[in-house]
Each structure stands twice: as structure tokens, then as C-alpha cells.
Amino acid sequence: MDEDLANDDIGTQRRRRRWPVVLITVIAVASTGCLVMVLGTSGPGVGHFRTPAGRQAYTEAYTSAFAALPKPTETSDVETTFGTVRAYAWVNPDPVDDVPVVLVPGRASGVPMWGENLRDFVEHRTVYAFDAIGDSGLSEQTLPLRGMDDNARWVDEALDGLRLDRVHLVGHSQGGGLAAAVAVRHPDRLASLTLLEPIMTFGMLPIWAIGWSAVAALPFLPDSWRDHALNRIGGVEDAEVDPEDPMARMIAAGTTHFDSGSLPTPSRLTDDQMRALTMPVYVAIASDKSLAGGEDAAEKAELIPTATVKIWPKTTHSLPMQVAPALDAELERFWAAAPRP
């Protein structure tokens, strides 16, 4: 029995060491996507898989990555103005309170990105998670998203469809920017707001990240050069991504086969918008290679009157996976302290 537990611990440690490296690819995709949108495109479109074979390849990889998560209690396809949102629920029969947690993923990562955090969250609470409209995942976009108003609107409509009145909303990376947009536009929805390395929310993307993202996006580069660029973005030197890792395969399939149709770029919050937020807000910023803006972003976030702002030591943009146990415990305390209506 002790040997089995030891083997389980070793497996968990290996999995947790690998996840931040795999998420480097997600980071690069998010940065590259924002770079393209900042420089300009032909206008908003509808995200779609380029070919049926590409959709199948992605779906198979997604299914493999999703298998590492706890089995959801419910799976829903929720209709919104802009398309159908794939939503999963993990219903806790005895939650600490009746306010669920809702998770919004970063760019190109989908619900499987929460694999390191989800087990801790569902131990205490009912949890919902979305695949974002307009991004790779199992949601289906039908109308263009013409700005962050539209982007926040589909989240609001999805919460309506799931009959969720008030939630603890959590977003990572580009999902953090989307969660912040929801908080500004639909504040009554939120019992609290959690922003984990939110890009383009408290500051611009660092110049070095934009540069390396442009390098990583060049189609003619040798794989070794592209991997080096991805590792520089993620702040992990001399690391290798296992191409057989389920998350790596899913992300590779998404970036290869999915056309995002020009997703809206998250908007920097104005000083007035930050001061107007009244729900409890938790902001986590990485200490190293932050794509959210580092210390400057943390200082800016302090303008939110209700904010708890923390720079997590020895972390990069993959912060939620790198410090999952400590972060998850801190977030549970944060949610438990949120006032009830």
C-alpha cells in the first residue's frame, strides 16, 4: 500500500513538473494571437476548424487531455447570441456554500488547462468551466465577436442558460482579460473575481514576448528554433515539450487546425473602471517573465478598492499550474471570505 502511494506521489510530481512546460505553448499562442490582433486584421470573423479532418484530430486530442480531469457531473451545450458554449459542471453534493466557481481558460487551452487545479476546487465547491467561443475547443461560434462587449455578453448569456445568478468568476491569461470585462459590464453577476496573470488588463504585453511570439509564429522555422522561442516566452530555458503529452497534442492540433476568426483583444481597464469594481478581486501576478505586466501590473491592480494582489515568487505565466496546491488553498480562503447578499 505504501509503495502504491509512493508511486502515485511520483506520478503526480512528474505530471505537475510537465504541465508548466506544456503550457509554454499556450502562452505563445495567446501572445501571438494578441500580436496579430493588435497589428490589425481584415476584421472580425467566425472561428472555425479549417477542415473536417482537422476538427477530428483536435477532438481526439481534446478527449485524451480531458480524460485527466475528474469526470464531470453534467455536460451542456448552452445557446447564446454568438454560438453554443460547451460547459461542464462538477456538482458538489455538500458544498461549503451555494455560490459556484466558473472557470474561463486562456487562449487555445480550453477546459483541460484546469487539470492541476480542478480537483482541489471541486473538493469544496460546485464548479463550472467553459470552452471559449471563438477559440479552439468544443464551443461553436456562429456570429463574429466585434469587441469585448460581445465577448462579455456570451459569458453573461451562458450563465443565464445555466441558471447561475452569482458566481466566483476565474480567468487565466486571455481568459483573465475576458473575466475582467465581464466584471465591468455585469458586476451584479459576480460574488468575486479572480484574475490569474490576466493579459492586456493592467498593462500591455511585454515587448520581448511580442518579439518571441512573432518568431514562434513563422511557418518556415525549424522546430528546434520554434521550441526555443516558446521556451523563452514561457521563461523555461532548455526545456522540451513531450509531443505525446495529451495537452501538448491538443494545443498543437488547435493551433494547426483552428482559425480563431480574429478574437477581440482584452482591453486595459481604466482607472475609473478599476475604482468602480465593488466585488472582492484577487489578482495573481508571476514574478518571472510575466505576460500580465509584472510589478507594474500589480501596482496598477491596487487601484481596485477591494483587491488582494499577490506576486507569486518563482512563477511564470503558467502560474496556476506551477503553484496549484498553494494557489488553490488561497483561493478557497478568498472565496469563503466573500460577503453573501
Structural class: alpha/beta
Low-confidence stretches: 1-18, 24-41
- How many helices? The count is 12
Written as H for each helix and E for each strand, in order along the chain, the element string is: HEHEEEHEEHEHEHHHEHEHEHH
Strand content: 15-25%
The value of Rg in angstroms is 19 Å
Q: How far is the N terminus from the C terminus?
A: 47 Å
Oligomeric state of the chains present here: single chain
- Record field, number of beta strands: 11
Give the helix level as a range of percent: 40-55%
> Overall pLDDT, averaged?
84
- What overall form do the CA principal axes indicate? globular
Please summarize the sheet with the most strands.
9 strands, mixed
Task: Outline the fold blueprint.
Blueprint: H1 2-39, E1 48-49, H2 52-66, E2 74-80, E3 83-90, E4 101-104, H3 118-124, E5 127-130, E6 140-141, H4 148-161, E7 167-172, H5 174-185, E8 190-196, H6 207-217, H7 223-234, H8 246-257, E9 258-259, H9 271-276, E10 281-286, H10 294-301, E11 307-312, H11 319-322, H12 324-337
Provide keyphrases for this structure:
341 residues; alpha/beta; two-stranded antiparallel ribbon; 11 strands; disordered N terminus
In short:
This protein has 12 helices and 11 strands. It has helices spanning about 1-40, 50-65, 120-125, 150-160, 175-185, 205-215, 225-235, 245-255, 270-275, 295-300, 320, 325-335, and strands at about 50, 75-80, 85-90, 100-105, 125-130, 140, 165-170, 190-195, 260, 280-285, 305-310.
